[in-house]
Amino acid sequence: MDQESRCCLPVKEQPAESKEEEEDDDDDNDSSCGCNAWDVIVVGAGIAGLAAAERLCSRGFRVLVLEAQQRVGGRIWTQWTDKNTSPIEFGAQWIHGQENNPLFDVCTKLDMIASEESDEADELKGEFRMQSGSLISNTTVDHVLNLLLTIRDECANSTPAQFDACNASSVDAFLRESFSEAIRCQNDHDPGLMWAIFEWFLTFEKIDNACPDLRHLSTRAYTDWKICEPYSLVSFRNGYNSITDWLAHRLPPGFLMLNQMVTRIKLTESGATVCINDKNLTADHVIVTVSLGVLKANLISFDPELPEQHQSLIQALGFGTINKIFIRFERRFWDASSPFSLKLVWTGRVPGLPDWVYDVSSFDAVRGRDDMLMAWVGGHGAVAVESESEKQVGEVCRKVISMFTGIQDVPEAVRVICTKWSSNQFVGGSYSHPTTASASLGIGMSEEHLFSPVVGRSPQSDPSSMPARQPRPLILFAGEHTARHFYSSAHGAFASGNQPRSWT
Ligand SMILES: Cc1cc2nc3c(=O)[nH]c(=O)nc-3n(C[C@H](O)[C@H](O)[C@H](O)COP(=O)(O)OP(=O)(O)OC[C@H]3O[C@@H](n4cnc5c(N)ncnc54)[C@H](O)[C@@H]3O)c2cc1C
């Protein structure tokens, strides 16, 4: 059973019509009459929930989207911080890749794409510098990164049996062993420096996979994830929220409610009851699109409890945090003729600096902003930095930039913004990854049974009628963590909601 066939809702033949006269959003309602107020309730107005709702509405379903926060988009969050400048992205930054990427297709059709070229801040390009201020030669950087990318490709093409044979089920072990082997007989480059660049690559991988520790990241992270070729980092012209706003505006009035935190989903004879603020709403089906972090935190209780398989999946899969630090300086102090991207290659600890700083991979120029840099922070540091004051973060960043570039007079930061994805209770982190624990249970993100629907029995108006009540999906799942080969991404989340043959 593939993702497209596993969650079918009954087909509706009528196109969507304005249902304003039928809406009664504020009333308590129950399903005692056997007739639910909504065909489908979608929990969460991130890109997955909005895509599902838009798809179902356009097929004639009466769909209600309930969103806990006061905005749509979830982990897509564009901010217009200063007048007359480009926006900044607190969450998703790029569309990754083009072909077989439904998000790229729809955004291209809607003319939302800024450029089809890679973003300036290409993730593995830039100035690799040590804390002494020394620039590492491109020859050494390219040599080490090429070795590591080859190892990563080998990993992506390996089978589980090959991993077992080399006893390296974690990405950390696989990279470490393979890299050690690869540089064993090489005398052209300083081994200490090669290992320092290796450690930088691990920091980058922790961010790329939103994984606090690569010893817990299963090698399936490389084998399960599929790249949409040609691979490039595609930006939005007017911010990532262009697409979520567009989807939200396609819903009929009254079909989307903000500030509505769902606390409980109870299955009933005729469907499900969804509780928000002591109010019950009923529907034939519920689509749960909240993050894996929200599911792990049990923010929503299920009655009856979710099946064992779902629960062990929720526990075993990983959901880590990455954050962004935006720093607007009094003035630009870098050369604008080439894109600024400073990669931090640490060769040792520096007394007085907080631990989170070693989990920062780079400082990059921000598209359309000539006075702003952005740092990516991952690993355990991504969570730790959330409890620092922004002033403190800004001061540490200035100091680090000064150390690595040798620039003594890095100007004052006039504004520092740190995202806080871990502390946001409605997200609880950034995105999901397969762990060694999930792999040891035989679960990869690409598994076909991942987050299958919770089924119930259709109500029988005539008990004597045959055949007996048919199983039907009552709770369905969508969201980034349910996307078989594109988990962790916005296009995976979009595809999980926008399932043309699946929902209808
Ligand atoms: C810092 C960062 C950078 C990223 N960069 C990229 C990138 O460059 N490219 C890329 O493709 N992806 C990126 N991602 C990942 C991408 O943003 C997500 O995969 C995607 O947006 C997830 O969408 P979703 O709809 O599955 O979940 P969400 O966006 O989390 O939507 C779920 C919604 O459910 C709501 N909710 C939660 N609990 C409840 C409740 N109890 N009741 C009602 N509503 C509830 C939430 O408020 C949220 O709006 C990034 C993510 C982060 C955090």
Automatic annotation (TrEMBL):
Please list the cofactors this protein needs.
FAD
Q: What is its main location?
A: cytoplasm
UniProt keyword annotations, A-Z: Cytoplasm, FAD, Flavoprotein, Oxidoreductase
Q: Which GO terms describe its biological process?
A: polyamine catabolic process
Which cellular components does GO assign to this protein?
cytoplasm
Region feature Disordered, mapped onto this chain: 1-31
This protein's pathway reads: Amine and polyamine degradation; spermine degradation
- Give the residues the record marks as binding FAD: 67-68, 262
- Asked whether the keyword Secreted is assigned, the reply is no
Tell me the ranges covered by the Amine oxidase domain, including all copies: 47-498
**Location relative to the cell:** Cytoplasm
Q: Where is the composition biased (Acidic residues)?
A: 19-30
The entry lists its GO molecular-function terms as: polyamine oxidase activity
In terms of superkingdom, the source organism counts as Eukaryota
List, alphabetically, the InterPro entries matched.
Answer: Amino_oxidase, FAD/NAD-bd_sf, Flavin_amine_oxidase, Flavin_monoamine_oxidase
Family under the similarity heading: Belongs to the flavin monoamine oxidase family.
Put simply, this protein is called Amine oxidase domain-containing protein
Q: What is the lineage of its organism?
A: Eukaryota, Viridiplantae, Streptophyta, Embryophyta, Tracheophyta
